[in-house]
Amino acid sequence: MKQRVFVAGHRGMVGSALVRLLCLDASIELVTRSHAELDLVNQKQVDDFFREELIDQVYLAAARVGGIHANNAYPADFIYDNLMIQANVVSAAHDNGVQKLLLLGSSCIYPRLARQPMQEASLLTSSLESTNEPYAIAKIAGIKLCESYNRQYGFDYRSVMPTNLYGENDNFHPENSHVIPAMMRRFHQAKISGDDAVIVWGSGQPMREFLHVDDMAKASIHVMNVAKSAYRQVSEERLSHVNIGTGEDCTIDELAQTIKSVVGYRGKIEYDASKPDGTPRKLLDVSRLGKLGWQAEIGLRQGLERTYRWFLENEKRLRGV
Predict the structure, then answer these.
(1) CA angle 150, 5, 82 (to 5 degrees)
(2) Which of 117, 143, 297, 127 has the alpha carbon at shortest distance from 209?
């Protein structure tokens, strides 16, 4: 009998990557719903859905996400929507006997000045980065929600914390996108327009780690399905989440130079130091993930080339974004 697997947020970047991979498994019957069909912020809709659909596993990839600008502009939306999505889905999964659930979080859960690379044990040891604090607090609540249901009810709800993600189906909005799609769109437009320079926010010195979304999907499926005994060997009851990343980082300037090369832009890069840098460095310790038997496969330049090809193939559709 096939496992009924619900991917919440299947149209997003991570959710769509999960769907692409899970579709290859003949033992799985995928269940998806668009936002118009199921509003995950609405508790009654979520309760009704789980009661009717008899779900076996849940990948909770649905979230309100965005870059520094979006987090600063819409803090109430970010904390409320993400808290409600997580609470509704986890609670309904429990009420309807779903034994396995994977919550996808974010590396922004760690303190702004956490020791690098950031270990899972860094959680809640110091202050968060102010530019995305509401989103981070919501994701921390999601981790603790899963841990609490496991402790109280003996379920197997797991959480993975990815580093900065990019790839196909990313958000290329000119204001609300993350650093890679924002840069890629800017360099592409500058190439087409023949602009002399591209302005990049901040100083260019912060260091960031980037993971292609296909690697993220593979890692998520791996962590979901690793044996419970193996998972418990690398995690703790009150510290059960697992970092997902490459274990390597680069400066924003190095990233910009690589994207410039991939896009084929020949102008200059100029930095606007009046704009916020965010956290000085964000590199994840992925030793737990390594002990579970998984490591990233897609290098940064290779991933950026794949992403730019996808952007060019979808440029007409993305112009209206």
Answers:
(1) 60
(2) 117
What CA–CA distances, in Å, run from 90 to 40, 74, 126, 244, 286? Answer: 11, 24, 27, 21, 26
Residue 19's pLDDT is 98
For residue 307, the number of C-alpha atoms closer than 13 Å in the C-beta half-sphere is: 32
Nearest-angstrom CA–CA distance, 289 and 296: 10
Using CA atoms, how far apart are residues 101 and 175, in angstroms rounded to an integer? 33
Distance of CA 79 to the CA centre of its chain: 16
pLDDT score of 111 = 93
Q: Which of 132-136, 184-188, 264-268, 312-316 has the lowest mean pLDDT?
A: 312-316
Asked about 135 being catalytic, the answer comes back as yes
Distance of alpha carbon 169 from alpha carbon 92, whole angstroms: 28
Catalytic residue among 59, 110, 135, 265: 135
The token duo for 232 is: 């418990």
Q: How far apart are CA 40 and CA 85, in angstroms?
A: 5
Residue 320 confidence (pLDDT): 56
- The answer to whether the pTM exceeds 0.90 is yes
Residue-wise pLDDT tens digits, 265-284: 999 999 999 988 877 888 99
Task: Locate 44 and state its tokens.
Answer: 């009654």
The dihedral through the CA atoms of 291, 297, 299, 304 has a sign that is: negative
29 CB-near residues (< 8 Å, 6+ apart): 2, 3, 4, 5
**3-class SS letters over 165-204:** EECCCCCCCCCCCCHHHHHHHHHHHHHHHCCCEEEEECCC
Q: 95, 53 in Cβ contact below 8 A?
A: no
Note the pLDDT of residue 50.
98
